[in-house]
Amino acid sequence: MPRGLRILLGSAVGLGFVLAALWIALSAFARSLPEGRCRRHERFSAAVWRDTAQAYGELAPRGCMVDDLLARRDLHGLSRTQVVALLGEPPPTGYFREYDLVYWLGPERGLFSIDSEWLVFRLNATGRVADYRLVTD
Questions:
Q1: Does residue 46 share a domain with residue 3?
Q2: What is the mean pLDDT of the chain?
Q3: Is 132 found in the same domain as 86?
Q4: Same domain (yes/no): 46, 95
Q5: Residues 106, 123: one domain?
Q6: Signed CA dihedral, 82, 85, 87, 88: sign only
Q7: Residue 26 is part of which domain span?
Q8: Using CA atoms, how far apart are residues 65 and 76, in angstroms rounded to an integer?
Q9: What is the pLDDT of residues 119-137, one digit of tens each?
Q10: pLDDT in tens, 12-46
Q11: What is the reported pTM?
Q12: CA 110 to CA 54: how far, in whole Å?
């Protein structure tokens, strides 16, 4: 076999190994992203949401379930009592003092999870939800 062809084939095989290793590394990295924690917790469950041991645990399932909650329920107009019945009483926090109810969801979703993500509610004068949104700190 000519020397040039051996070099070309060797380079192709080496490149194949590098690409395979890169694929394996990227796959492992993708599983470690914050969204990787969401397996089995994509659908909203009030019981799981209110379970503070789970909510503040390593999986932080609230951040996984919040999209399903917001897609399925319009929370505008609910009373404070109704929100608390659904999501539980949020613990006091120094974050987002301009809101009336503040729920920690977990690490923000995305490639670089530096901050936390929160679901916040503003109540009107009659104690009903006037506004709610997802925010990061």
A1: no
A2: 83
A3: yes
A4: yes
A5: yes
A6: positive
A7: 1-32
A8: 18
A9: 999 999 999 999 999 999 8
A10: 666 655 555 544 444 444 444 455 667 777 899 99
A11: 0.72
A12: 21
